[in-house]
UniProtKB/TrEMBL annotation:
The active site is at residue 107. This is HIT family protein. It comes from the Bacteria. One of its GO terms (biological process) is nucleotide metabolic process. It holds the Pfam family HIT. Residues 12-120 form the HIT domain. GO terms for molecular function: catalytic activity. A motif (Histidine triad motif) lies at residues 105-109. InterPro entries: HINT, Histidine_triad_HIT, HIT-like, HIT-like_sf. Transmembrane segments: none annotated.
Length: 145
């Protein structure tokens, strides 16, 4: 799928927002949802999305909705680093298949990095849900800390 296209209400993140597909949630308010990536590239890899904005990518995003997602992305990045103490953290976002996008609902990745631990392959290798649930609890516990 290219940069141009129509938002598909059947995409997996739209299903997660509607509660039609499972997710391990880390944060939720009226506008923004964050959940663990099920094919994590590192321990603590999570995703942040708008619940209201039907934007496939950054180019289509409503600026007000984007501002809310970015503010929560910062909050969660702080929580992830406080909880898991990584040596670094990637915050990334892909637009269009050639750029690496596989799900066409705008999302931000938060990926902790540890020195000497290589980054896992993108969207490969499913995580154990119990482990994700424990990580989500560790991270969300630091949200108000
Ligand atoms: P991107 O390639 O930037 O579009 O990222 C999509 C991300 O969504 C990948 O990192 C996938 O591992 C992740 N992903 C796909 N399906 C699910 C799902 N059902 N729950 C959580 N993460 C998912």
């Amino acid at each position: 799928m290219s940069l141009e296209g129509v938002y598909d209400d059947g995409n997996i993140f739209a299903k997660i927002i509607r509660g039609e597909a499972p997710s391990v949630k880390v944060y939720e308010d009226g506008d923004v949802l964050a959940f663990m990536d099920v094919f994590p590239q590192a321990r603590g890899h999570l995703l942040v999305i708008s619940k209201t904005d039907k934007a496939r990518n950054l180019l289509e995003a409503d600026p007000a909705a984007l501002a809310k997602v970015v503010a929560i992305t910062q909050k969660l990045t702080r929580a992830v680093t406080a909880a898991l103490k990584p040596d670094g953290v990637i915050v990334s976002q892909f637009n269009g298949a050639p750029a690496g996008q596989t799900v066409y609902h705008l999302h931000f990745h938060i990926i902790p990095r540890w020195e000497g631990t290589p980054l896992g392959r993108h969207a490969e290798g499913m995580a154990d849900v119990e482990e994700l649930t424990a990580l989500a609890a560790q991270i969300s516990a630091k949200l108000d800390a």
